[in-house]
Amino acid sequence: MNKMSPMERVAPLWPVLALLLFSVAPAHPSKCPKFCICDNIQLTVACTGKNLTEIPPTINEITVKLDLKGNNIQELPTGAFLHTPYLTHLSLQRCNVRSVREGAFRSLGRLVFLNLANNNIEILYQESFDGLTSLKQLLIDHNRVEEIQPGAFSQLGFLNLLSLTHNQLVYIPNMAFQGLQNIKWLRLTHNSLNNLATEAFAGLLTLTRLSMDHNELQFFPTETMTRLPELTRLDLGYNPMTYLGEETVVMAKLTHLFLDHMSLQDFSHMALVQAPRLAHLDLGQNQLRVLQPPLGPEKLARLVLSGNPVYCSCFLRPLREWALRGRVRLLGACAGPPTSRGRAWRPCTPPTCAARARRPC
To answer: pLDDT tens digit string along 306-325?
Structure first.
């Protein structure tokens, strides 16, 4: 009987050993694209400022944070991120993006943060954001967005912040934000909005803060605002409104209202009757000469009137007495008479007012 040498006995085991070695090799080998910086511990990839024209196809599949800002990716095609399904954060600002095709993000069901700021996007299509079912923050600031197609945000049920500042929106149609079931803050500042459909904000039942300053609204959108039952903070400063009439603000939970730097010349004392919880009202930098004590908001604690041409005469007595009774802090300075110009408000005391009442104030 022939005896096998030790080497002959080991030889049949080599295929098994090789198989074991390959089986314990990393399932996701590092695939860092050229010109990118990859962190295989934090699972992040940064390809910034490299003039890339497309999404690098060799990014590691298990990457969770991808930073592509400062490139030249003018179009995001359908399925652009099929090879990176585990992304949670994606930055695409300053990439000259002009078009987001339907289904571009369809594979990114884990994404919670998407930054598309500082691009050239003009239209938000119906299915532009399909697949982003976990997204919480969407930034589309400093683009050229002039149209939001119906259903553009229909799959963003977990979104809590949507920012569309510095775009070219003129009109918000009915149901434009349909699907945003958990939205908390909507930012539309620095657009050219001059008209809002009555149902523009319909369905935003969780919205607590709306920023629409620096637009072209000439009238307070009373009917549109009634569709926001949970809104507590509304910023409409820098809009060319001249007048607020009776029962203009019909918002049961509103606590902070900013109407500064407008063109207000008249503000009805009944304008806030339907805003019982208002605590802070900013009417600074307008054209108000006289203001009657506003009725309605019993919790008002701060009223800003700085920068208005208010004449410190007996006409201020009712407002001053109302503020003293309600412990409302008035912020403003006298525009006249000359001896009082620039001073913090010190309306005349009742005896002085009584004396002045015998002659024109």
So the answer is: 999 988 887 788 998 999 99
CA distance 230 to 361: 44
Give the C-alpha distances (Å, rounded to integers) separating 5 from 1, 11, 12, 13, 172. Answer: 13, 10, 12, 14, 85
Which residues are CB-contacts of 252 (< 8 A; sequence separation ≥ 6)? 229, 274, 275, 276, 277
Helical ranges in the chain per DSSP H: 6-10, 14-23, 222-225, 317-326, 350-356
Phi-psi region of 283 (alpha: psi -120 to 50; beta: other; left: phi over 0): alpha
Residues of the chain with pLDDT under 70: 1-30, 346-361
What phi, psi does 76 have (nearest 5°)? -105, 100
Look at residues 140, 152, 210 and name the one whose alpha carbon lies nearest to residue 178: 152
pTM over 0.90: no
- Which residues are 163's β-sheet partners? 139, 187
216 residue type, one letter: E
